[in-house]
Amino acid sequence: MVGGGIGGLAAAVALHRRGWRVEVLERAPEFTEVGAGISLWPNALHALEALGLAGAVRELGAVEPAGGLRDRRGRWLSRTESAELTRRFGRPLVVLARADLLRVLAGALPAGSLRPGSEVRAVREDGHGGVVVRHGSGESRADAVVGADGLRSVVRRALWPGADGPRYAGYTAWRMVTGPVGPDLAAEGAVYWGRGETFGHTVMPGGRVYCFATASLPEGTDFGPSEHAELLRRFGAWPEPVPSLLAAVPADAVLRHDLYDLPPLPSFVRGRVALLGDAAHAMTPNLGQGACQALEDAVTLADCLDRTADVAAALRRYDLLRRPRAQAIARRSARLGAVGQLSWPPAALLRDTAARLMPARAALRAMAPVLRRPAGGSGGRR
């Protein structure tokens, strides 16, 4: 496994549970993430159940009681209760710290399988039915290699040298977690659509709130040392609870990243090498599906490898099952992002009016292809 993020660790757990000997190579000095939350939708919880980890994750998370879309003035455009989400898709929306999810995944693996501080430098097939990975600690040989090393994947560049690189989505994103706040501020979640800007918040355990925001800006825009000050300037006069939530965010706890996706590949697989998660299908965060799709990838990959001893055939089946779905969701997320970032007032008004007129049932029905339990990845035979 190249990459020790959510997708790489999940794939390692899924394969370890089926009797595979796994090795996870991670260039960072430890397996962790800091500073942000993560939303796990019903499809992700189904995948975690296949890993035997859904209970542990839910204990560390909070179920969002309700949420939806608001306009720039704070008026509801659409709203959904968690109970209805659960009724339709079998599971609720759970929010927790990304670092907590990584701890659960890493804790399900033998300590000896985790190799932090191992930056991968080259990947090649050895000509004898195996794959060689060269990294900072030497070389590793494997029957199969999974590239789960993110947007700027070394594995993708090595095996797909002609593939186009990341493309800027046209907007940047801030992520942050508040300190503990009162129950009125952490009551439910919402995403506010502005003009070229959005702001969202969702409940987390311990009375905290995960907040995120976007703004249409040139790539690489620099606001100097205080991202928090820029957030206050842009969103400090938005409807409550936005200003109060920003006031509850520590000034040094704001992360910002320009957003990118990846052009679609004709295949996620080359011989005995497969791509997974962002390395395969990096997408904008507008549907909250980046990590969810990586978890689906992991479970489906292990299920395919469990069904046949022919590794190459198993990976081809993985590609057949995962690529159409993941790429369709990536396209849908990009479209939603473009809609959310509309800045021309007449277009934004038309967008908000259409969202307000759409019945809640129709909105949930439209999300069914994303949130349903996917084909494949239901578990292994061993």
Concise summary:
The protein is of the alpha+beta class. It has 13 helices and 18 strands. GO terms for molecular function: FAD binding; monooxygenase activity.
Structure write-up:
This protein is α+β, with helices and mostly antiparallel strands. The relative contact order is 0.18. Helix content is 38%, strand content 23%. It has one domain (6-167, 260-371): 3-Layer(bba) Sandwich (FAD/NAD(P)-binding domain), CATH 3.50.50. The model is unreliable at 378-382 (pLDDT under 50). It has helices spanning 6-17, 42-50, 54-60, 82-89, 98-107, 154-159, 227-235, 242-247, 278-281, 290-307, 311-340, 345-357, 360-371; strands spanning 24-26, 37-40, 62-63, 66-71, 76-81, 94-97, 114-116, 120-125, 131-135, 138-142, 145-147, 167-177, 190-193, 197-203, 209-216, 255-261, 269-270, 273-275. A seven-stranded mixed β-sheet has the order 5-4-13-14-15-12-16, sandwiched between helices. Keywords: Monooxygenase, Oxidoreductase. Residues 2-333 form the FAD-binding domain. It comes from Streptomyces aidingensis. Pfam families: FAD_binding_3.
